[in-house]
C-alpha cells in the first residue's frame, strides 16, 4: 500500500473496524502489508485513520480528494460549492474531516433561523383539561381518580425525529473531528438543541421521518447526518470503542455519478432515464416464468429510440485495437442490445489524462447479426463542467 506507513497494531485496529461494519476495504498480503480493494473513503479506529482515495492519473492527493468529494456530492444529491473543499485551512484535511465540516456548515446555515418544529401528540394525566379527553383511559385507569383528567393533545415541539438525528450526528462528530475550527462550530450548533432529547446512533437510524414542506430545507443536513452516522461501528477489542468506516464501492459510485448527471442532462430533452432498474429478462422457463432479470446501469429512451449505458470503473488501453476490454463485458452489451432493441449500447469508462486522446467517443463497432452499435467512450471526471456536453454528444451520436 502506498502512502503513510502503518504499524501492525494500527492495521489490526483498522481491520477490526472494517469487519465490524461487514465490509472489506483492504486485505492482508503479509504481516505488515495490506492491499486496498475497490473501495474508497475512510476507516478510522482509535488513534488511527486510513484514507483511501481513487487512482486518478495526473492528480495529486488534494485534487483527487476534491474530485471524490464532487462525485459524492453529485451521486448523493448533496450540493458541494467551490469553497467547500478549497482554501488553505482545508489542505491537510482528509475525506472524513471534509465531510464533517460540510455537514456542520450546512447545518449552521439552517439553524440560524431556529430549529424545525412539528406537532407531536402527547397523553398526560392533568388536573385540568388540555386538548381532548381520552375517554377510555379516563373511565378505566383513572376511574378512581376523578380529580385527574386523561388528556390527549398536540404540542408544537422541537423534539422531533429529525432534530434527534441531527443532534446525535453533532454529538458524535464532535468526538471524531480533529480540526479545531470544525469542533468549535459543532459546539456552537449543539447549544441550539437544548430542547431536544439525546438518542443513540442505532435509535436515530431506526427512526424514520417524512420530508415535507415544513422540513424540506433540512433535507441536505439530514442526509449528511444519516450518511456519517451509518458509517459508525463498534469494536470490542479492549472494551467498547467508537470506529468509523465510511466506504464507497468505486464501481457503484461511478455508476451513480453518471446516472445522476444523465438525469439532469437527458430528462429536460424529453428522454426517459432509468438507472439500475430490473427490467426485461433473458429467458423464460417452460411455464413462461421470467428468469435472469437484466439491470442496465442506464436505460435512456425517447420516441422508441433506446440507448443503453454500462459504466466501468477501470482503465482502457487505447493502444490496443480492442482497448483491452473484457470479452464478458462485450457479451453483456450484446445481450442488452438484443433484449432492449437498442440502437446503441455504450461502455463508459473514466478518461485517462496521460493519453493523447480526448474524452468522449473512442471507438464504435457494429454488432454482428443485430445492426446496432457498440460504442466505447470515456468521460473526464476531473472536469464536471464538461460532463453534460460529453454525455449529450454521446447521445447525439447514437
TrEMBL record:
Alphabetized InterPro entries for the sequence: McrC
Pfam families reported for this sequence: McrBC
Highest taxon, organism lineage: Bacteria
Protein name per Swiss-Prot or TrEMBL: 5-methylcytosine-specific restriction enzyme subunit McrC
Species name: Telmatobacter sp. DSM 110680
Amino acid at each position: 500500500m502506498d502512502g503513510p506507513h502503518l504499524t501492525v497494531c494500527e492495521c489490526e485496529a483498522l481491520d477490526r473496524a472494517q469487519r465490524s461494519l461487514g465490509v472489506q476495504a483492504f486485505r492482508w498480503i503479509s504481516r505488515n502489508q495490506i492491499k486496498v480493494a475497490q473501495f474508497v473513503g475512510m476507516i478510522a479506529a482509535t488513534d488511527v485513520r486510513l484514507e483511501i482515495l481513487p487512482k486518478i492519473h495526473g492528480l495529486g492527493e488534494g485534487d483527487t480528494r476534491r474530485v471524490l468529494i464532487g462525485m459524492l456530492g453529485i451521486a448523493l444529491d448533496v450540493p458541494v460549492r467551490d469553497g467547500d473543499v478549497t482554501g488553505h485551512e482545508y489542505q491537510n484535511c482528509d475525506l472524513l474531516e471534509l465531510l464533517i465540516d460540510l455537514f456542520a456548515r450546512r447545518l449552521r446555515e439552517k439553524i440560524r433561523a431556529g430549529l424545525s418544529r412539528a406537532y407531536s401528540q402527547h397523553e398526560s394525566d392533568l388536573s385540568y383539561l388540555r386538548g381532548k379527553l381520552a375517554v377510555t383511559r379516563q373511565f378505566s385507569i383513572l376511574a378512581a381518580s376523578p380529580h385527574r383528567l386523561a388528556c390527549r393533545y398536540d404540542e408544537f415541539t422541537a423534539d422531533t425525529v429529525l432534530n434527534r438525528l441531527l443532534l446525535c450526528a453533532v454529538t458524535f462528530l464532535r468526538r471524531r473531528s480533529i480540526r479545531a475550527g470544525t469542533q468549535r462550530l459543532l459546539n456552537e450548533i449543539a447549544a441550539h438543541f437544548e430542547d431536544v432529547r439525546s438518542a443513540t446512533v442505532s435509535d436515530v437510524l431506526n427512526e424514520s421521518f417524512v420530508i415535507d414542506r415544513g422540513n424540506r430545507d433540512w433535507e441536505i443536513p439530514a442526509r449528511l447526518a444519516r450518511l456519517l452516522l451509518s458509517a459508525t461501528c463498534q469494536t470490542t477489542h479492549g472494551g467498547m470503542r467508537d470506529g468509523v468506516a465510511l466506504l464507497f464501492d468505486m464501481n457503484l459510485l461511478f455508476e451513480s455519478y453518471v446516472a445522476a448527471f444523465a438525469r439532469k442532462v437527458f430528462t429536460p430533452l424529453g428522454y426517459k432515464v432509468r438507472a439500475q432498474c430490473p427490467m426485461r429478462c433473458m429467458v423464460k422457463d417452460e411455464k413462461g416464468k421470467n428468469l435472469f432479470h437484466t439491470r442496465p446501469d442506464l436505460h435512456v429512451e425517447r420516441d422508441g429510440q433506446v440507448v443503453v449505458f454500462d459504466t466501468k470503473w477501470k482503465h482502457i488501453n487505447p493502444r490496443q485495437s480492442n482497448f483491452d476490454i473484457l470479452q464478458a463485458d462485450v457479451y453483456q452489451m450484446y445481450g442488452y442490445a438484443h433484449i432492449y432493441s437498442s440502437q446503441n449500447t455504450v461502455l463508459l469508462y473514466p478518461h485517462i489524462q496521460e493519453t493523447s486522446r480526448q474524452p468522449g467517443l473512442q471507438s464504435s463497432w457494429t454488432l454482428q447479426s443485430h445492426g446496432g452499435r457498440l460504442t466505447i467512450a470515456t468521460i473526464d471526471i476531473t472536469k464536471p463542467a464538461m460532463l453534460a456536453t460529453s454525455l449529450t454528444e454521446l447521445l447525439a451520436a447514437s
